[in-house]
Amino acid sequence: MIDLAELDTPAGRERLREITHHVGFFYLDGHGVDRELLDRVFTVAREFFALPDDAKQSIAMLNSPHFRGYNRVGGELTNGETDWREQIDIGPERQPIPGAADYLRLQGPNQWPADLPDLEKTIEALDAALADVGMRLLRNWAASLDADPAIFDDAFAHAPATLIKVVRYPERPSADHTGEQGVGAHKDSGVLTMLLLEPGSSGLQVETEDGNWIDAPARAGSFVVNIGELLEVATGGYLRATRHRVLTPAGAPERLSVPYFLNPALDATVPTIELPPHLAERARGIELDPANPLYRTYGENAWKSRTRAHPDVYARWYPGESEPE
């Protein structure tokens, strides 16, 4: 557990660095985000998922070449296996880039349900609040590694490609024998993630250094924060993106979650931090996984992730193209 205020001290920044050197997850308190806003997020999320199916399907991601919109239960894959959740994916509200190729095609407008105008207003407010918290964390990570606290600022200065998911894990029948994957084990493709969990919920698990899995239940007033792959790349593996998953075993109750992915511009390349000798000797290097290559340009990493998770969208809008590596 880390309080944002303690990062104003050298000891607090050192603690942040060492915690995320070992396991790239922690609970964040003292973030200053209005509790009323967070409650409103869950209220509007419940209202969205309570809409008739035809209203949700009217904004299906399959309609969007930018991978925005609604996915029904079973409409997303992780590691080639079906996730047990429904969700809406929301990014920055921008016009498509004329003649865009590859990852630049991720830029474009969102799809919003006509019957729920509060959803757009609430998500915009959440985005503004969490962008400030996320940049403060990044500057403190940089300072803890003896780098310029503003080293990441340029990557976020123009058209950051934030992604927000509003997710519902439906209850799983007690007699369900289809498995327990709410979302499969994975790492996040961006810089960092701040996760808002419904109070009292469980199911999130984090992999430890020794390969075991530990529970990360919701904690009142806290965000769960984790490092993404680009922060691992930027630090030569000193900070390590950590695998995590959500389990929904037979009999699991319904739960809501809202992950906020802080990402730079699609074409931004994350800077490489030159670590001081006493830290460089402890850096493990970037994890090499042939099945999951890591890229320094955010858009490349995002395109890899989005096209794998939503092969139906990719096939509809980009037929004939080879699958991304």
TrEMBL record:
<dbReference type="InterPro" id="IPR027443">
    <property type="entry name" value="IPNS-like_sf"/>
</dbReference>
<keyword id="KW-0045">Antibiotic biosynthesis</keyword>
<dbReference type="GO" id="GO:0016491">
    <property type="term" value="F:oxidoreductase activity"/>
</dbReference>
<keyword id="KW-0560">Oxidoreductase</keyword>
<dbReference type="InterPro" id="IPR044861">
    <property type="entry name" value="IPNS-like_FE2OG_OXY"/>
</dbReference>
<dbReference type="Pfam" id="PF14226">
    <property type="entry name" value="DIOX_N"/>
</dbReference>
<dbReference type="GO" id="GO:0046872">
    <property type="term" value="F:metal ion binding"/>
</dbReference>
<dbReference type="InterPro" id="IPR050231">
    <property type="entry name" value="Iron_ascorbate_oxido_reductase"/>
</dbReference>
<comment type="pathway">
    <text>Antibiotic biosynthesis.</text>
</comment>
<comment type="similarity">
    <text>Belongs to the iron/ascorbate-dependent oxidoreductase family.</text>
</comment>
<keyword id="KW-0479">Metal-binding</keyword>
<dbReference type="Pfam" id="PF03171">
    <property type="entry name" value="2OG-FeII_Oxy"/>
</dbReference>
<dbReference type="InterPro" id="IPR026992">
    <property type="entry name" value="DIOX_N"/>
</dbReference>
<keyword id="KW-0408">Iron</keyword>
<dbReference type="GO" id="GO:0017000">
    <property type="term" value="P:antibiotic biosynthetic process"/>
</dbReference>
<protein>
    <submittedName>
        <fullName>Putative isopenicillin N synthase family protein</fullName>
    </submittedName>
</protein>
<feature type="domain" description="Fe2OG dioxygenase">
    <location>
        <begin position="160"/>
        <end position="264"/>
    </location>
</feature>
<dbReference type="InterPro" id="IPR005123">
    <property type="entry name" value="Oxoglu/Fe-dep_dioxygenase_dom"/>
</dbReference>
